[in-house]
Amino acid sequence: MGEDASVNNYDIISIGDSASSNDDLSNSDRTNYFRNISLSYFAAQPTEMMSKHIEFKELCLESGNPEAHYIQGILQLFVKEDEQAGLYHLRQSSDGGYIDGTYLYGLSLLAVERFHKGQKYLDKLGWKENRSTSDQCWERVKKSLTDIPYFMNQGYYIARANLETLCGCRSRKRRGRVCNHGYYYERLNQFFEFAMSKNN
After folding, report:
1. Distance between CA atoms of 6 and 134, rounded to whole angstroms?
2. CB distance 133 to 126 below 8 Å
3. Which residues of 51-78 are buried (b: 16+ CB within 10 A; e: fewer)?
């Protein structure tokens, strides 16, 4: 009936030892605090940080919070249409260990025709052994992108067509075989169709 908890995991997560949370805070490290604070609420609604919580977002970015980089990557790439800045922040998110950042970074690289690097990042999610992690990431990424009004880029269509040609998905499917690179095309196609649906 309800959504899988791993997909709908935007509840606030307590960080650190709860027993020591009420103890003396004079030794607390501000940078560590902003690096580790959960921004899962904002990951589900990134546009909130663009207008209402700018200073908080900046503190988290300065401290290297991977969720803050994920949110900033979405805002830069899909709202401000700054590809370079968007990809930079998504990579920081991925390098910081945020798996949704890894997924969206890999997917975004595919969408701008940096296929080899995009495949490398998507492979970090272990999809060859089990696709459930990728599927859960995709559901959360879709939720993050829901509030973004229009982010379809003509380049996504070209990238999808080029990736399909590169891996030969159509011809292999006609002969009854599965394309070795079909996973990447499938993921890019999901993204493309989701972006198209937002235009309607």
Report:
1. 11
2. yes
3. eeeeeebebbbebbbbbbbbbbbbbbbb
Distance separating alpha carbons of residues 1 and 182, to the nearest angstrom: 31
Query: Residue type for 16, please?
Result: G
Q: How far is CA 185 from CA 6, 29, 140, 161, 180, in A?
A: 24, 44, 19, 9, 10
- Maximum C-alpha span of the chain: 68
| Residues whose CB falls within 8 Å of the CB of residue 62, separated by 6 or more in sequence, listed in order | 31, 34
Q: H helices then E strands: how many in the chain?
A: 12, 0
Q: What percent of the chain has pLDDT above 90?
A: 32
pLDDT digits (tens, 9 = 90+) for 148-178: 876 666 666 677 776 776 665 554 444 444 4
Residue 153 — left, alpha, or beta (φ > 0 → left; ψ -120 to 50 → alpha)?
beta
Say what the pTM is: 0.75
